[in-house]
Amino acid sequence: MIEIPSDATRELVRIRYGETDRMGHAYYANYLFWFEQARGAWCRDRGFDYKDLEDMGVMLPVVEAHVRYKGEILYDDVIEIAVWVSEIKRAALRFDYAVFRQGESLLLTDGYTWHVTMGTERKAISVPPHVREMMQRPRII
Questions:
Q1: Would you list the domain boundaries of the chain?
Q2: Tell me: the pLDDT tens digits for 71-82?
Q3: Residue 31 clears pLDDT 80, i.e. is over it
Q4: What are the angstrom distances between the C-alpha of 58 and each of 55, 84, 106, 141?
């Protein structure tokens, strides 16, 4: 059982036909695109976006991704992705994800992505204090 923090962001996604395989199931690689969409919503819920981070000279490339498929997601389903930051280290942070069909409580997919903080020289840097503060903000929207 996954415990979702109360201030997690919840992003809705309708599954398009082109996001499915011949069997009508969501194609496995598309989950990473949906995770990215949810991360963007998470940032906006806290008053910033990825562009703001880049303008500050900080990038957050994904260095590890894990997805566990537990149930079927089909064409035209509306899924709800809960996303939150579960860990912040010296130079990395982890986003966790839980995916449900809208209005249902059965966990269909879960996963996480690890991101390193990278500066303009494209090398890992410690999470700057102002970025750490941004990542620890409660949801404001």
A1: 9-135
A2: 999 999 999 999
A3: yes
A4: 7, 19, 36, 23
CATH superfamily, region 9-135: Hotdog Thioesterase (3.10.129.10)
Return the closest-CA partner of residue 138 out of 102, 84, 87.
84
**Residue in the structure block whose two tokens are 């992705």:** 81
Which strand ranges, in their side-by-side order, compose the sheet holding 107-116? Answer: 9-14, 78-88, 92-101, 107-116, 62-69
* Ordered DSSP codes for 64-123: EEEEEE-S--BTT-EEEEEEEEEEE-SSEEEEEEEEEETT---EEEEEEEEEE-B-TTSS
Q: What angle do CA 116, 120, 125 make, to 5 degrees?
A: 40
Distance CA 92, CA 115 (A): 5
pLDDT of residue 35: 98
Q: How far apart are CA 103 and CA 80, in angstroms?
A: 8
Mean pLDDT of all residues in 9-16:
98
Task: Indicate the SS3 state at residue 27.
Answer: coil
